[in-house]
From TrEMBL:
NCBIfam families: MMSDH
Keyword RNA-binding among record annotations: no
Matches recorded under PROSITE patterns: ALDEHYDE_DEHYDR_CYS (PS00070)
Alphabetic keyword roster: NAD, Oxidoreductase
EC number: 1.2.1.27
Domain Aldehyde dehydrogenase, first and last residues per copy: 15-478
Protein source organism: Xanthobacter dioxanivorans
Coiled-coil region list: none
Molecular function as annotated in GO: methylmalonate-semialdehyde dehydrogenase (acylating, NAD) activity
One GO BP annotation of this record: L-valine catabolic process
Protein name per Swiss-Prot or TrEMBL: methylmalonate-semialdehyde dehydrogenase (CoA acylating)
Keyword RNA-binding found: no
Amino acid sequence: MREIGHFIGGKHVPGTSGRYADVWQPMTGEVIARVALASKDELRAAVENAKAAQPAWAATNPQRRARVLMKFLELVHRDYDALAELLAREHGKTIPDARGDIQRGLEVVEFAVGIPHLMKGDYSDGAGPGIDIYSMRQALGVVAGITPFNFPAMIPMWKFGPAIACGNAFILKPSERDPGVPMHLAELMLEAGLPPGILNVVNGDKEAVDGILDDPDIQAVGFVGSSSIAQYIYARGAANGKRIQGFGGAKNHMIIMPDADMDQAVDALIGAGYGSAGERCMAISVAVPVGQDAAERLLEKLVPRVESLKIGPSTDNSADFGPLVTREAVERVKGYVDIGLKEGAKLLVDGRNFKLQGYENGFYMGGCLFDHVTADMRIYKEEIFGPVLSVVRAPDYKEALRLPTEHEYGNGVAIFTRDGDAARDFASKVNVGMVGINVPIPVPLAYHTFGGWKRSGFGDLNQHGPDGVRFYTKTKTVTSRWPSGVKDGAEFVIPTMN
Ligand code: NAD
């Protein structure tokens, strides 16, 4: 069986802790590899490597650092098919969706290629007599990223692309569920000319994560995963004096106004609610039709579409979605459907008993659709992270705005309408970090920033875009004076510009 160790100092190294996790192939339900789970000592070895390599990398001029990323982009394109297939096998998403996962990661690396410009500082000439002030951005040193299972290509690239471009050395702790792609990406960075030790992959679980949070040489940690772990990472990392960003779970609403183009809204809901089996932090999990008439028109079109979703193995390019990531995930999601029924929601489409012929051991379930879900139900309040869409009927726009605004998650939200006034009011007032207007998954492009609010995001800088560079650098400000004849003696009062 394939054994996945760690990638430290530019080399594959086997795990020495004696602890391993199985890597499953969700489409068949088989174990296809095992991955080593690092001890704190193994993590420490990676940090030592990174620490030794980082100063020379930071001293390399930014154009040369950018050229390594350019070469990396070329190499990922060379290996695109193999990466997408590996990703689909370990994660379960379909190959076309796996290609999108890789592409959205590459776009952030493309953005990071602009690092010579992105790291430029500011200069104030003549701020006082003979005084100039300038600021510069410098790398932090050794930084880390801890990433979730659901985007094993995109999120690692969102983290290490900007961090490495800024001159840091990086420790990546990917999800233990699908570690194959992150390992391959690290190999490609080395092949692209990255010095050994600048990108290290340490596979593991809580022990490796705690090692990262407590390590005195790690300056910053970018985390993406569920909210309870994001909060834990934020608290423990910050208590140790680190810079932390922790992105968490979600419950994304889509408001359907009475004037919306209903066909467009249904297409959007089907793709954003059920794509990748609902295992996306920007998936739509709550549909909010406004008014009785909009609800009826929506459901008339939506129900047959959910009933006819095509579920297939990850290698079937015509499938709408593939299996979920693990058997436990299927059980958890089905458990939520049971809870919804007990809570009194009306199950219009029940996908719990779905079986895929020839793949009976795979981790599949069909699409589920609930109507008459209310804000006090657990299926509304909690993240389900599966192919389950809840319809919450709102009598008017005011209630439709209140629901996502008062929900404890605040990752993404969308409004479908033809009314510019309503859309503008909604975008301005809703208490959520990313808003789509007639766009169901409003993941901003690489040159804007990505981040949720409330329990969807801990910390104050977003991912990628300008914030990605800010997060992985610190600002130094230099005030210089060349007096050329100005003599004002000792000053005991705080200097001012009076
Ligand atoms: P997870 O929280 O289980 O795992 C994320 C990472 O934390 C993994 O690397 C894992 O090894 C580690 N981890 C798990 N348990 C831990 C523990 N007890 N202590 C320390 N570390 C631990 O999340 P997941 O299941 O891999 O991913 C799905 C979640 O991620 C969903 O909640 C989804 O909404 C969220 N997500 C959020 C975003 C975002 O940008 N907000 C993006 C993608 C996914």
